[in-house]
Amino acid sequence: MSIKPDDHTTGSSELAKVSEPIADPGLPAHTWRPTDVDEKLAKRAERQVAGLFGLSAVFTILFFVSYFAFKVGDNWNVGAGLGSSTVALGLTLGLALLCIGVGIIQWARKLMADHEIVEMRHPARSSDEDREITIAALGDGLEESGIGRRPLIRNSLFGAIGVVALAPIVLLRDLGPTPGQVEDEEEGKGLEHTIWKANKRVVRDVVGTPIRVADLQVGDLVNAVPDGLFDLEGVDLQVQKAKSAVIVVRMEPDEITPGAGREDWSVEGIICYSKICSHVGCPISLYERTTHHVLCPCHQSTFDLADSARVVFGPAARPLPQLPLAVDSEGFLVAQSDFTEPVGPSYWERVVE
User: Fold this and answer.
1) Residue 302 and residue 310: Cα distance in Å, rounded?
2) What pTM was estimated for this model as a whole?
3) What is the pLDDT of residue 141?
4) Contact predicate 283/277, CB 8 Å
5) Structural fold of domain 202-335
6) Dihedral-angle region of residue 206 (phi above 0 means left; psi in -120 to 50 means alpha; beta otherwise)
7) For 112-136, what is each residue's pLDDT tens digit?
8) What pLDDT band is residue 185 in, cutting at 50, 70 and 90?
9) Is the Cβ–Cβ distance between 262 and 235 less than 8 Å?
10) What is the pLDDT of residue 201?
């Protein structure tokens, strides 16, 4: 097909017109917001933002109330397996954070400066001049935000954030009980207590049979636990066994050197100590009959059971806690009381004697 010269010329001119760059349309005329032109509306928006921040503080306080009012596991079920504690904590803390977020958005939309800003591309490292300009722009942004001129918003924002910041501190309580924290209705809770108590029988580990004085021969070592331990289940069983396990040893009575105030803690040469090493909590039972030494297999801490479990070697800093023993009317070994000191490794609130 042939193209006439006039057709070719016409097509080229039309193509040239299409290829011309589109002119920059520019920005539309700026429309001022109602709060920019009416100070009453600006004040109302300011009160709204401050109200949201104040409402956030109220929800945070309700979070604290919910934390102490609702206990995990013993409240009504809200649904989908969620208890009242979970729902109350999540709802109140979520609303507290939401109010802060909505307040900041309202502040930005209605009260902060309303300008179109264009930033040209620049190298990865800004020049010193650009850095100075940036710092100046940040200063201008702070000025335009009105935070200095609107103390009601500033103070209410800082107050809301300060109250919300307390929430993680309260939640630290869930990391576990403090060493001395024990609730009266829950025996054996905390680091300083076990389920041993007066007249609780000493029974053999695993099988759970009580131990008579006549059952033990000189040189015997028996792994034992408190009677009733195996009535527990799950985590409670593991926690109490980790604290309450003991070793019962029989030696000649005249070989025992009792500590001060412990003269009546043994029965006919039968003496009882915590099975939990005072170094890092390993279970111990490697017994040397002739020296009455017991060895921890983890780090070789060695304790003299004839001398109040005194440390004779290794990294342990404290003797093994001793359980005071007695005999009941049927001839079975029983505890006189709980341990008089915490079992297991030392901790920062523990005074090393």
Assistant:
1) 8
2) 0.53
3) 81
4) yes
5) Rieske Iron-sulfur Protein (2.102.10)
6) left
7) 887 776 666 655 677 788 888 888 8
8) very low
9) no
10) 94
